[in-house]
Amino acid sequence: MNMKTPGAVLLLLWSGLVVVAAESGGLQDEDTGAAPTQLTCQPDVHSVLREMSALMAEQRVELRYTKTQMEAMETRLRASENKAETMETRLRASEKTVEEQRAVIKELKEKQEEQAAAVKAVGGSVNLTGSQVEELRREREERRVSFSASLVTSGSETFGPFSKPTTLIYRHVITNTGSAYNPYTGVFRAPVRGVYYFAVFVYGGGHASTTTGVSLHKNEEHVVIAYSHQPSLQYSSSNGASLLLEVGDVVYVKLWPNAWVHDSYNHHTTFSGNLLFPM
């Protein structure tokens, strides 16, 4: 609409000038017949038209420049809006993080207040007596339970066969942290309630009718067996289990009826146990 307005103005101006020129020329012809006046008026009209054309061209250039500037400003405005949205998203994330941290701090404060109240209830002091320190040390030591033992300390010996199950006594102690295993009875007694892992390894010689085998027991309960048989040469087998034990529960190994096992200074036949975690 704006681009057409200067053309319309120019057309109207041109029409008006032609009319004026025509009337002026007609009058002069009637009075004096002076034709040079028409020739003098025509150059003025062309000059005005040229000036208006130049003005229109200048306006077009300015319009294009203005349009370019507006497009650039629109692009910058969109970029600013995108940045604002990004900053708003980051701000929300930061607010969420702050709220989470406040919740953690609040929880820590509550625990601290509970601990302070507990300390106040026992006399308002965290200083431990000698007996309390000893009790804590004993509880820590009780939670360190691990042992391994083999049948013989030196030499070589075969145990069995016997007609009925017989408890094996593993006399050579390799390790016995917590002293829960008794090398004189072959029995492990649980010092704390927890989950323990036990493993047995057996070694024997091949025989046509004699097998090699032992069974793991918890109290009076049979748990697993390590058992093998072949007519010749030496061979071995193993087994293990995780057990939930109460304080005072016992675990031990029995020789399988009519079976034998062999051990030597190489310690082939072993019994081991470890406290995995207290409960």
From TrEMBL:
GO terms for cellular component: extracellular region. It is found in: Secreted. InterPro entries: C1q_dom, Cerebellin_Synaptic_Org, Tumour_necrosis_fac-like_dom. Residues 1-22 form the signal peptide. Pfam families: C1q (PF00386). Keywords: Coiled coil, Secreted, Signal. Residues 140-279 form the C1q domain. Its main location: secreted. Residues 70-118 form a coiled coil. Gene3D superfamilies: 2.60.120.40. It comes from the Eukaryota. PANTHER family: CEREBELLIN 13-RELATED, CEREBELLIN-RELATED. This is Complement C1q-like protein 2. It comes from Clupea harengus (Atlantic herring). The gene is LOC116223224.
